[in-house]
């Protein structure tokens, strides 16, 4: 059963065909990475899944239901959550308060505090819980972002370049977090450039190029594919 499926998903910006009849599936329980050269249409595809852009054609199915016309908040309510590159955390509040805000919609009292503690541990932010979020390191801010996204207990977590700007150690720790979430049953779709990270987390990799699915497979199949290497070198054109 697919948690996410797109059928001939299409998006034009004026005369630019940015998403070109994309048939794409994330199986339930899978970690799937989306890669491709700059301008391939990865962010646009994400925004279509989130409902931030209306498609020009095609359909989006989530957990068996057609969500093509659903509003972004309806998609979030159904279990899609996202961590963007741009920080969405409250910089002037403490780390603990940030998580409280994300959790207090559905939890209260002792249960709320227990869940904050559990998340702080998971995110490696326990020692930083009373620091202002704005004073965290870049990597810690990204983890807090992930915490805000998973506070909603998503079934499908979308990650937009989660390791951008991180040190190799932070990147590896982030990979461990993604693996742990996946072991708890969360399906993941990540846009990512760091191939070591992709290797660490992805069960499946899709390469987008000029808005089309160019290749798909395991990380080993993708890195061995000479056609994929050629597009990164700019040798394959639309
Ligand atoms: N709102 C928009 N209006 C017009 N053109 C857009 C818009 N958003 C993106 N584009 C264009 O669509 C194409 C794909 O952009 P997109 O950001 O989806 O690619 P990407 O694969 O995420 O790239 P990168 O890896 O650089 O982030 C680019 O040519 C971009 O200029």
UniProtKB/TrEMBL annotation:
<dbReference type="GO" id="GO:0005524">
    <property type="term" value="F:ATP binding"/>
</dbReference>
<keyword id="KW-0547">Nucleotide-binding</keyword>
<dbReference type="GO" id="GO:0016887">
    <property type="term" value="F:ATP hydrolysis activity"/>
</dbReference>
<dbReference type="GO" id="GO:0005886">
    <property type="term" value="C:plasma membrane"/>
</dbReference>
<dbReference type="InterPro" id="IPR027417">
    <property type="entry name" value="P-loop_NTPase"/>
</dbReference>
<dbReference type="InterPro" id="IPR003593">
    <property type="entry name" value="AAA+_ATPase"/>
</dbReference>
<keyword id="KW-0813">Transport</keyword>
<dbReference type="Pfam" id="PF00005">
    <property type="entry name" value="ABC_tran"/>
</dbReference>
<feature type="domain" description="ABC transporter">
    <location>
        <begin position="4"/>
        <end position="235"/>
    </location>
</feature>
<keyword id="KW-0067">ATP-binding</keyword>
<dbReference type="InterPro" id="IPR003439">
    <property type="entry name" value="ABC_transporter-like_ATP-bd"/>
</dbReference>
<dbReference type="InterPro" id="IPR051120">
    <property type="entry name" value="ABC_AA/LPS_Transport"/>
</dbReference>
<protein>
    <submittedName>
        <fullName>ABC transporter ATP-binding protein</fullName>
    </submittedName>
</protein>
């Amino acid at each position: 059963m697919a948690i996410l499926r797109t059928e001939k998903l299409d998006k034009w910006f004026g005369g630019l065909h940015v998403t070109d009849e994309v048939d794409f599936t994330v199986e339930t329980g899978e970690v799937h990475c989306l890669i491709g050269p700059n301008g391939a249409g990865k962010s646009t595809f994400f925004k279509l899944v989130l409902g931030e852009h209306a498609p020009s054609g095609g359909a989006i199915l989530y957990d068996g239901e057609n969500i093509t016309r659903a509003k972004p908040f309806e998609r979030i309510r159904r279990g899609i959550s996202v961590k963007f590159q741009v920080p969405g955390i409250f910089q002037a509040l403490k780390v603990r308060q940030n998580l409280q805000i994300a959790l207090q919609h559905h939890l209260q009292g002792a249960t709320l505090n227990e869940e904050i503690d559990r998340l702080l541990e998971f995110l490696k932010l326990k020692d930083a819980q009373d620091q202002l979020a704005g004073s965290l390191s870049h990597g810690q801010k990204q983890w807090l972002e992930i915490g805000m996204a998973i506070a909603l207990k998503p079934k499908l977590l979308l990650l937009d370049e989660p390791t951008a700007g991180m040190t190799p150690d932070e990147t590896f720790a982030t990979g461990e977090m993604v693996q742990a979430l996946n072991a708890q049953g969360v399906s993941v779709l990540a846009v990512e450039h760091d191939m070591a990270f992709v290797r660490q987390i992805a069960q499946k990799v899709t390469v987008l190029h000029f808005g089309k699915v160019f290749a798909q497979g395991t990380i080993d199949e993708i890195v061995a594919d000479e056609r994929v290497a050629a597009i990164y070198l700019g040798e394959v054109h639309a």
